[in-house]
Amino acid sequence: MLLRRTATVLAGLFVLFVLIAPSDLEKFTPEAFLRVPLEGLVGVMVLVLLPDRFRKPAAIAGGIALGLFTVVKIMDIGFDMVLYRPFDLVLDWPLLVPAIDFVDVTFGRFASVLAVVAAVALVAGIVLLAALSVLRLSSSAGGRRPVAVRAVAVVAVACVSLAVPGVPVYSDAAATSLVDHARRVQAGLHDQEVFAAEASVDALRGHPGLLSSLQGKDVVFTFVESYGKSALDMPDVAAKLADGNARLKARGYAAKSAYLTSPTAGGGSWMAQATFLSGLWIDNQQRYRNLVASDRLTLPRAFRESSWRSVGVVPGITQAWPEGDFFHYNEIYDAADLGYAGPRFGYATTPDQFTLESFQRAERSKEHGPVMAAIPMVSSHAPWSPTPDSVDWDKLGDGSIYRTMPASNDPPESIFGRDPAAVRADYAHSISYSLESVISYVERYGDENLVFVFLGDHQPAQMVTGEGASRDVPITIVAKDPAVLSRTEAWKWDDGIKPGGSAPVSRMSDFRDQFLSTFSPPRP
Known about the structure:
By secondary structure, this protein is of the alpha/beta class. The chain is built from 16 helices and eleven strands. It folds into two domains: 2-191, no CATH class; 215-518, Alkaline Phosphatase, subunit A, CATH 3.40.720. This is Sulfatase.
């Protein structure tokens, strides 16, 4: 008897927790659980009033549904922690593959296999536990039908009579969550049509004299991984930008900076990069796949068709990358092509400084025509520890020098379960390293014909930014030739490599048109 009562109480607590628990970890407070779930009251009444022969099958079906709902809620919490949004039941399944790849690359194959096995076991366990819990509650309530009906009625009346404005007594969080997911499912099912309509418009395709105002310039677009607006408030990063601005100014460079709103946050760098280069808003994998299967005019293609040599330097690519054909590069340098013989630092295949040096050796160190390059750097990719040290450019060699760094032997640390202050410090250190790589590259290899654009791809995870952070990332254009920046005056960007708090903000998908229009003749 005692065992049955204990099982009933535990089953009730489990169901209560699942129905009331918020989908945002930041809202897990004691007050959030001091409520009565209306869905629970309705569920009890339905099961109690059903004929005996239908009660058990209905309880099992309802329990399975509750278990699946719990799994989706866990996914919501995880996506909110990293990507600042709930899980999309239609569009987000493809993102699970990059998540597994991240664990595989960062922590090893055993860790990735273990993570998959643990996830499958967790899902099965939650669904089984939910089904058994609802079945136990159904059996208990069905055996005491009059008592159960009266109890539900009393609780319902109490919820209504005790309700005070601003002090919630009951909760409909589960129903609200289901409605929100249903709306996202509907939007996801129609997103392909919406994207096709957006992609069908391209006023710059076939525009005569494209990029003629940049003829003879080497133009480099560099993506600094996880470099978000929140980084600018960190003392180490702010100091690095102030120092870098002074160094570049002393060498005759000028810079303009602003913000772009990224289509993603916490991850999904490839979607942000595709948005920037294509001028289309790519915020899910379905859009990305449709984009790379299209004939869209990208920035690399625009430069190539305007007589530049267009190259992609992609150290994060370690296997076949068929999507690379879409960008129409003359040459793609993946991780294996960079000639790096040093150790990995966390997720990063090569340190950012070495990536830039490899690009310089392969493309700009010899006699060449104008070159355009897109370079997504990876040193500031989570988990942000360990991070390499900056090296004298003359000593980089094949990267073997990095083996002498103590951090090169340290295994990467998970950002979860660590002190948030330590995670933020590691993040700031990695961003400072990446910015130093960019600044010192311009110092060493820049000239009158270099136009260097560097920007963030997305904000880091919420454990770094805190709740409510925007999706804005800094963008900076650096040049020594005054004629280049004079053409950007209409942009009204801030002077220097650090944008101020009131600097202009535009969508990342707007930059392609803004850039091409600025450095091309007026459209007819």
